[in-house]
Structures are given as structure tokens and as C-alpha cells.
Amino acid sequence: MSAAREYELDEQYEWARPPQGGWTADDLDRLPNLPPHTELIDGSLVLVSPQPLFHMRALCLFENALVEQASDSLDVMREMTVKLDYKNRLEPDVLVLRAGADAGPLDTWYGPEDVVLAIEVMSADSKERDREVKPRKYAGVGIPHFWRVEEDGGLPIVYVYELDPAVKAYQPTGIYHNKLRLTLPFDIEIDLTAIHRRRP
Fold first, then answer.
1. For 23, 105, 181, 200, which has the most beta carbons within 10 A of its beta carbon?
2. Are 113 and 140 in contact (CB under 8 A)?
3. Under a CB-based contact definition with an 8 Å cutoff, are residues 30 and 2 in contact?
4. What is the pLDDT of residues 161-199, one digit of tens each?
5. Domains and CATH numbers, the chain
6. How far apart are CA 147 and CA 190, in angstroms?
């Protein structure tokens, strides 16, 4: 019997007790009443705080720009989880995926082999995760590109990383203010000062 099923039968607890050894990636689909955007890191549930306006505008900016500029061989998705392994299921803010990665309309996660780029927009409660934990885990499963987005004076700063496959670690390739212009993973140009515009 799964840990989630044991919890469903034990109605005296409002919150689930973690099983011995921690939760698994598949438990996220079975545990009742989890808050939206719950992640799993090393078998522990991570609950996400309500996000500020900057975070939501940044998601829209990057999602819209990447959808417009990505080739037909790629797809762009926001706030979908990636099952890295048995004990880790993370939710990047924006993903660029290989087209055709979806197995069906009821999917709740992607495999790391389908991910080309993971983007994390840092919030006050996610600094350590976004700067240290998540990049290490994304690199460890071979996701080739990672961006970390931070806020400065209401505008995004984008820290861009590329995977060194020999050591399974990210190497920094640039820090971008005002305008992001890249050739990998495809030709990308984003006006970072447009974050507050209602339309491109």
C-alpha cells in the first residue's frame, strides 16, 4: 500500500506524515489536498509561497517570448513538474521541451530527457533552492541549459548557464541586463525592460 493511500485512510491528521524514507515522485499525484505547485526535493515536500507580481510578470515575459521564437521542434510550458528521479520532482517556472514530449493530456510531469531549458524565477523564499539546489539537480540529470532570473529595481537580471556534460555541472555563460540575446539553445532575443508592458 502506498504512503498516500495510508494517509487517505488516516483521517485524524490534517497534513500527511512523511513515510519512512520520505515521499516519492509518484506520491505527488496521489496525496490529497496538496497546495498548488508543491515540489519534492530529496523525498521532502516543498510548499511554495504566494508569488509577487514581479514573479508572475517574469513568467509571462519569458513564456511569450520563447513561444514566439522557438522552432517547431520545441515546445514551451510553464509550471509543469519534471520527475528527475524517484525522490525528486521539481517545477521549473518555464520549460523549453522537445516537441512531442507529451504522452497525453492528463500528464502531470515530464522526464528530464525531454527538457532543453529550465528557467527559475527567484523569489524571497527560494533563494537557496534556485541558486544551489535546483541547478545542481538539473545538471545531474543532464538538462543542457538553465537560467536563473532575479529581480533588481523591478527588472529581471538573467543568469545563463550551460551544462558541462563531462562533470555534470553548469558553467556560467553570461549575465544579462536590459536585453537577453543568445544563440543557444536557439536564437533568442528578449527585451527585459518590457516586463511591465501589457502587450509585446
1. 23
2. no
3. yes
4. 999 999 999 999 999 999 999 999 999 999 999 998 876
5. 3-34 (no CATH), 53-196 (3.90.1570.10)
6. 13
